[in-house]
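The instructor's notes for this session suggest beginning with a concrete chain rather than abstract definitions. Hand out the sequence below and ask the class to guess, before any prediction is shown, which regions might be ordered.
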Amino acid sequence: MKNNYRKGGIGAVMDEYERAAADLKNLIGNISEKDFVKIVDSETKDDDCRSVQTIISHVIDSAFGYANYIRDWFAIPKYSPERRLISQNDFPMELDKMLAYTVETLQDKWELTDDEIMKVKMIVRWGPQYDLEQLLEHAVVHILRHRRQIEKFAATSKISLLNS
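After discussion, reveal the predicted structure:
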């Protein structure tokens, strides 16, 4: 159990983001390298959902995008790593880099008031307008949804988990 919680509403959401990422990291660590790269869904129209590897690469790429929406609003210089397939060995480090980038993005914003949070307005590429908290909540749920997707692959015997 975590002993040091961030202050404020934004801090709480970031703590949950890290928790969701840790759960995903544990899950990926229990998948064989063969199953990690295996095409599990060859019929999907979504190239980001064909294998565990494409899913986690999409999760990390998207997370940098979420942080960059926030950086744009606050006029903070941004960085976008080149989109690529991430190896299973590189995944923990890449996930940690993404989290550190997000923490850096949110530094000194943990205790924004509700009014300050709601003033942050970002129109995302898939259409809706989010305030700061909504975008961060979306980021958390994005990890949870894809973790569930990978767990479903295991539950339907499309991949195997090593410690199950």
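Then share the key points. The beta strands are 122-123, 129-130. The first helix runs from residue 8 to 28.
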